[in-house]
Amino acid sequence: MTAENLDGYEMLEQYTPIVFAFVLGLSFILLMIVFRSIVVPIKAVIMNLLSVGAAYGLVVLVSQEGVGAGLLGFQQVQTVEAWLPIFLFAVLFGLSMDYHVFLLSRIRERYDQTHDNTDAVVFGVRSTGRLITGAALIMVAVFGGFAAGDLVMFQQMGFGAGVAVLIDATIVRSILVPASMRLLGDWNWYLPSVLRWLPDVRVEAAERFNLPVQGRRAVPEGD
Protein backbone atom coordinates (compact mmCIF):
# COMPACT_ATOMS: atom_id res chain seq x y z
CA MET A 1 0.00 0.00 0.00
CA THR A 2 2.84 2.40 0.81
CA ALA A 3 4.57 1.72 -2.51
CA GLU A 4 1.28 2.15 -4.37
CA ASN A 5 0.62 5.49 -2.70
CA LEU A 6 4.13 6.73 -3.45
CA ASP A 7 3.76 5.76 -7.11
CA GLY A 8 0.40 7.53 -7.26
CA TYR A 9 1.75 10.73 -5.70
CA GLU A 10 4.72 10.70 -8.06
CA MET A 11 2.45 10.27 -11.08
CA LEU A 12 0.19 13.10 -9.94
CA GLU A 13 3.15 15.39 -9.36
CA GLN A 14 4.52 14.58 -12.81
CA TYR A 15 1.33 14.86 -14.86
CA THR A 16 -0.62 17.61 -13.08
CA PRO A 17 1.34 20.48 -14.74
CA ILE A 18 1.00 18.73 -18.11
CA VAL A 19 -2.77 18.39 -17.70
CA PHE A 20 -3.09 22.05 -16.67
CA ALA A 21 -1.02 23.25 -19.62
CA PHE A 22 -2.82 21.04 -22.13
CA VAL A 23 -6.33 22.00 -21.00
CA LEU A 24 -5.58 25.72 -20.79
CA GLY A 25 -3.71 25.77 -24.09
CA LEU A 26 -6.33 23.82 -26.02
CA SER A 27 -9.13 25.94 -24.55
CA PHE A 28 -7.33 29.11 -25.58
CA ILE A 29 -6.81 27.89 -29.16
CA LEU A 30 -10.40 26.71 -29.63
CA LEU A 31 -11.91 29.88 -28.18
CA MET A 32 -9.62 32.03 -30.32
CA ILE A 33 -10.79 30.24 -33.46
CA VAL A 34 -14.49 30.26 -32.56
CA PHE A 35 -14.68 33.91 -31.43
CA ARG A 36 -11.81 35.25 -33.59
CA SER A 37 -10.27 37.13 -30.68
CA ILE A 38 -7.27 36.80 -28.39
CA VAL A 39 -8.89 38.86 -25.62
CA VAL A 40 -11.89 36.57 -25.16
CA PRO A 41 -9.89 33.36 -24.61
CA ILE A 42 -7.43 35.06 -22.24
CA LYS A 43 -10.31 36.44 -20.19
CA ALA A 44 -12.15 33.11 -20.27
CA VAL A 45 -9.14 31.21 -18.96
CA ILE A 46 -8.59 33.76 -16.17
CA MET A 47 -12.26 33.74 -15.13
CA ASN A 48 -12.45 29.96 -15.09
CA LEU A 49 -9.28 29.76 -13.03
CA LEU A 50 -10.89 32.11 -10.51
CA SER A 51 -13.66 29.58 -9.90
CA VAL A 52 -11.20 26.71 -9.57
CA GLY A 53 -8.95 28.75 -7.26
CA ALA A 54 -11.91 29.67 -5.07
CA ALA A 55 -12.81 25.99 -4.77
CA TYR A 56 -9.27 25.09 -3.73
CA GLY A 57 -9.21 27.79 -1.09
CA LEU A 58 -12.60 26.94 0.39
CA VAL A 59 -11.82 23.22 0.55
CA VAL A 60 -8.63 23.96 2.48
CA LEU A 61 -10.42 26.48 4.71
CA VAL A 62 -13.18 24.06 5.68
CA SER A 63 -11.47 20.67 5.54
CA GLN A 64 -8.01 21.48 6.84
CA GLU A 65 -8.57 24.62 8.90
CA GLY A 66 -11.95 23.46 10.19
CA VAL A 67 -13.74 26.76 9.58
CA GLY A 68 -17.44 25.86 9.46
CA ALA A 69 -16.70 22.14 9.30
CA GLY A 70 -18.87 21.33 12.29
CA LEU A 71 -21.73 23.43 10.96
CA LEU A 72 -21.62 21.62 7.61
CA GLY A 73 -21.14 18.21 9.18
CA PHE A 74 -17.66 17.72 7.69
CA GLN A 75 -14.67 16.08 9.28
CA GLN A 76 -11.57 18.17 9.82
CA VAL A 77 -8.45 16.47 8.45
CA GLN A 78 -4.79 17.32 8.12
CA THR A 79 -4.56 17.13 4.34
CA VAL A 80 -6.69 17.30 1.23
CA GLU A 81 -6.96 14.15 -0.88
CA ALA A 82 -4.03 14.00 -3.30
CA TRP A 83 -6.20 13.39 -6.37
CA LEU A 84 -8.67 16.16 -5.55
CA PRO A 85 -6.90 19.20 -7.08
CA ILE A 86 -6.53 17.73 -10.57
CA PHE A 87 -9.99 16.16 -10.41
CA LEU A 88 -11.63 19.44 -9.42
CA PHE A 89 -9.68 21.29 -12.10
CA ALA A 90 -10.82 18.92 -14.86
CA VAL A 91 -14.47 18.83 -13.82
CA LEU A 92 -14.86 22.49 -12.88
CA PHE A 93 -12.97 23.84 -15.87
CA GLY A 94 -15.23 21.83 -18.15
CA LEU A 95 -18.40 23.06 -16.47
CA SER A 96 -17.19 26.65 -16.26
CA MET A 97 -16.13 26.71 -19.90
CA ASP A 98 -19.51 25.27 -20.89
CA TYR A 99 -21.33 28.16 -19.20
CA HIS A 100 -18.81 30.64 -20.57
CA VAL A 101 -19.15 29.52 -24.19
CA PHE A 102 -22.94 29.55 -23.87
CA LEU A 103 -22.88 33.16 -22.69
CA LEU A 104 -20.23 34.34 -25.14
CA SER A 105 -22.01 32.74 -28.09
CA ARG A 106 -25.10 34.85 -27.47
CA ILE A 107 -23.01 37.98 -26.95
CA ARG A 108 -21.00 37.40 -30.13
CA GLU A 109 -24.10 36.65 -32.17
CA ARG A 110 -25.73 39.87 -31.02
CA TYR A 111 -22.56 41.86 -31.62
CA ASP A 112 -22.37 40.57 -35.20
CA GLN A 113 -25.92 41.79 -35.73
CA THR A 114 -25.66 45.25 -34.15
CA HIS A 115 -21.91 46.01 -33.64
CA ASP A 116 -22.97 47.50 -30.30
CA ASN A 117 -20.86 45.93 -27.55
CA THR A 118 -22.95 47.17 -24.61
CA ASP A 119 -26.20 45.99 -26.17
CA ALA A 120 -24.60 42.62 -26.97
CA VAL A 121 -23.46 42.11 -23.37
CA VAL A 122 -26.88 43.03 -21.98
CA PHE A 123 -28.60 40.74 -24.46
CA GLY A 124 -26.27 37.84 -23.68
CA VAL A 125 -26.77 38.08 -19.93
CA ARG A 126 -30.53 38.54 -20.28
CA SER A 127 -31.01 35.60 -22.64
CA THR A 128 -28.78 33.10 -20.81
CA GLY A 129 -28.95 34.17 -17.16
CA ARG A 130 -31.86 31.96 -16.14
CA LEU A 131 -30.58 28.93 -18.03
CA ILE A 132 -27.08 29.16 -16.59
CA THR A 133 -28.38 29.74 -13.07
CA GLY A 134 -30.85 26.85 -13.33
CA ALA A 135 -28.20 24.45 -14.67
CA ALA A 136 -25.79 25.54 -11.96
CA LEU A 137 -28.33 24.95 -9.19
CA ILE A 138 -28.92 21.43 -10.49
CA MET A 139 -25.18 20.72 -10.40
CA VAL A 140 -24.88 22.23 -6.91
CA ALA A 141 -27.64 19.90 -5.70
CA VAL A 142 -25.89 16.90 -7.25
CA PHE A 143 -22.53 17.77 -5.70
CA GLY A 144 -24.28 18.50 -2.41
CA GLY A 145 -25.37 14.88 -2.34
CA PHE A 146 -21.73 13.81 -2.41
CA ALA A 147 -20.83 16.32 0.30
CA ALA A 148 -23.57 14.94 2.55
CA GLY A 149 -21.84 11.54 2.76
CA ASP A 150 -19.60 10.30 5.55
CA LEU A 151 -16.45 9.70 3.51
CA VAL A 152 -13.99 12.59 3.74
CA MET A 153 -12.93 12.39 0.10
CA PHE A 154 -16.53 12.72 -1.10
CA GLN A 155 -17.16 15.56 1.34
CA GLN A 156 -14.19 17.44 -0.07
CA MET A 157 -15.10 16.67 -3.68
CA GLY A 158 -18.78 17.54 -3.32
CA PHE A 159 -18.17 20.71 -1.34
CA GLY A 160 -15.39 21.94 -3.63
CA ALA A 161 -17.31 21.29 -6.83
CA GLY A 162 -20.55 22.68 -5.45
CA VAL A 163 -19.20 25.99 -4.20
CA ALA A 164 -17.12 26.44 -7.36
CA VAL A 165 -20.15 26.02 -9.64
CA LEU A 166 -22.20 28.33 -7.43
CA ILE A 167 -19.50 31.01 -7.45
CA ASP A 168 -18.98 30.61 -11.19
CA ALA A 169 -22.67 30.97 -12.05
CA THR A 170 -23.29 33.94 -9.76
CA ILE A 171 -20.22 36.09 -9.15
CA VAL A 172 -18.07 35.17 -12.15
CA ARG A 173 -20.57 34.54 -14.93
CA SER A 174 -23.21 37.10 -13.91
CA ILE A 175 -20.99 39.94 -12.68
CA LEU A 176 -17.29 39.71 -13.56
CA VAL A 177 -17.61 38.49 -17.15
CA PRO A 178 -20.27 41.04 -18.25
CA ALA A 179 -18.52 43.86 -16.38
CA SER A 180 -15.14 43.11 -17.95
CA MET A 181 -16.66 42.82 -21.41
CA ARG A 182 -18.50 46.12 -20.95
CA LEU A 183 -15.28 47.87 -19.87
CA LEU A 184 -13.19 46.41 -22.69
CA GLY A 185 -15.71 47.43 -25.35
CA ASP A 186 -14.71 46.61 -28.91
CA TRP A 187 -11.32 45.38 -27.65
CA ASN A 188 -13.11 42.17 -26.74
CA TRP A 189 -12.98 41.16 -30.39
CA TYR A 190 -9.40 42.18 -31.13
CA LEU A 191 -7.52 39.77 -33.36
CA PRO A 192 -3.98 40.60 -34.57
CA SER A 193 -3.54 40.86 -38.30
CA VAL A 194 -1.07 37.97 -38.27
CA LEU A 195 -3.91 35.69 -37.14
CA ARG A 196 -6.52 36.81 -39.67
CA TRP A 197 -5.91 33.60 -41.61
CA LEU A 198 -7.81 31.67 -38.95
CA PRO A 199 -11.10 30.20 -40.27
CA ASP A 200 -14.23 32.26 -39.59
CA VAL A 201 -16.78 29.90 -38.04
CA ARG A 202 -19.24 32.57 -36.89
CA VAL A 203 -22.23 31.50 -38.96
CA GLU A 204 -25.25 31.82 -36.68
CA ALA A 205 -25.99 35.50 -37.15
CA ALA A 206 -25.27 35.52 -40.88
CA GLU A 207 -27.51 32.52 -41.58
CA ARG A 208 -30.33 33.56 -39.30
CA PHE A 209 -30.60 37.08 -40.64
CA ASN A 210 -29.35 36.37 -44.14
CA LEU A 211 -26.84 39.21 -43.91
CA PRO A 212 -23.04 39.45 -44.00
CA VAL A 213 -21.31 39.40 -40.63
CA GLN A 214 -19.31 42.54 -41.26
CA GLY A 215 -19.77 45.76 -43.16
CA ARG A 216 -23.05 47.15 -41.86
CA ARG A 217 -25.55 46.86 -39.08
CA ALA A 218 -27.73 43.79 -39.40
CA VAL A 219 -31.47 44.33 -39.31
CA PRO A 220 -33.71 41.28 -38.78
CA GLU A 221 -35.99 40.50 -41.64
CA GLY A 222 -39.44 41.97 -41.15
CA ASP A 223 -38.24 44.91 -39.00
How is this structure best summarized?
The chain is an all-alpha fold and 223 residues long. Helix content is 74%, strand content 0%.
Account of the protein in words:
By secondary structure, this protein is mainly α. Helix content is 74%, strand content 0%. It contains 7 helices and no strands.
**What are the low-pLDDT stretches, counting only 5+ consecutive residues below 50?**
205-223
How can the largest sheet be summarized?
Answer: none
Say how many strands there are: 0
Using only C-alpha atoms, the radius of gyration works out to 21 Å
CATH class: Mainly Alpha
Percent strand: under 5%
What are the SSEs and their pairings?
Layout: H1 2-35, H2 39-64, H3 69-72, H4 84-114, H5 117-147, H6 152-184, H7 204-209
Task: Describe this protein with a few key phrases.
disordered C terminus; Multidrug efflux transporter AcrB transmembrane fold; mainly alpha; 223 residues; 7 helices
